[in-house]
């Protein structure tokens, strides 16, 4: 991450580095998020202008893909699978329990900046559903108590 408050020139340089690609919008969004841990709101009109799109079109693509953040993530990122196999094994109740425990909605970050909870659509652990991931580490057969313990362990 470069710095928390990118300038328009910083953002434009990232955009310009990807515009040579066919279908550059997703690579641009990924590049900006990689640099700043989120896609700042002020980047959307710059991207739109560079690609001859509307800001609403860029926003629509960004909001469609759950990987893109509007604000920097917490120090720890908990992803809970929302795919059908995990749902059939209780992921909806698990998700609600975790979100309630942390006082968050999907994509939210705790006020202390410690944890961000994000939905993900398949972690490849369908046989061990429900699945979750904390800081890139997979957890199969997850339940609220285990996720709480795991989060305490990364405090």
TrEMBL record:
Enzyme kind, highest EC tier: oxidoreductase
Q: Per UniProt, where does [2Fe-2S] cluster bind?
A: 81, 86, 122, 126
Q: Which cofactor does it need?
A: [2Fe-2S] cluster
Q: Which UniProt keywords apply?
A: 2Fe-2S, Iron, Iron-sulfur, Metal-binding, Oxidoreductase
The question of whether Metal-binding is a record keyword is answered with: yes
EC number from the UniProt entry: 1.2.1.2
Q: Which GO terms describe its molecular function?
A: 2 iron, 2 sulfur cluster binding; metal ion binding; oxidoreductase activity
Q: Which domain of life is it from?
A: Bacteria
The note describing how and how many cofactors are bound reads: Binds 1 [2Fe-2S] cluster.
What's the family? Belongs to the complex I 24 kDa subunit family.
- Kindly provide the name given to this protein in its UniProt entry: Formate dehydrogenase gamma subunit
